[in-house]
Amino acid sequence: MRLRFRSSTALLxxxxxxxxxxxxxxxxxxxxxxxxxxxSGDLEQGGNVNHVLDLxxxxxxxxxxxxxxxxxxxxxxxxxxxxxxxxxxxxDISSGTCRRTFATNLSEGQVLTVLLNDPARCLLVxxxxxLPEDAVVAYTVVVENVTE
Length: 148
Description:
Blueprint: E1 2-4, H1 8-22, E2 37-44, E3 48-52, E4 59-74, E5 85-94, E6 97-107, E7 111-116, E8 122-126, E9 136-145
Antiparallel strand pairs: 1-4, 2-9, 3-8, 4-7, 4-9, 5-6, 5-8
């Protein structure tokens, strides 16, 4: 059985994220202290997605996975979806690639507070091996610098 999901909330969040990032003019959003960054996209089974960010200083940040919505998931007959989890990491950019320096697994609604010794330059969202074959999920991650 092949199921397709796309919530109006997911579309609204993606549109809002596009508006927020559209004002930046390039792929490197400026990060004023205290202003959250919103990153949305689609993640395929086995895939990873890099987002460029530039936290203005080291310190404490908050990562929130505010949305994790199945777009395309194939379930076995009588199968259940269960709790979806994806990998979320922070890192530095090296030779044009986001090199992970920190990573964790999150499910929708989870919030994690992280103390960074160095400012992060990229956000990596990846399949941690838990997405079913041919699955596609929509995600939204919010990154906030909470150091005062």
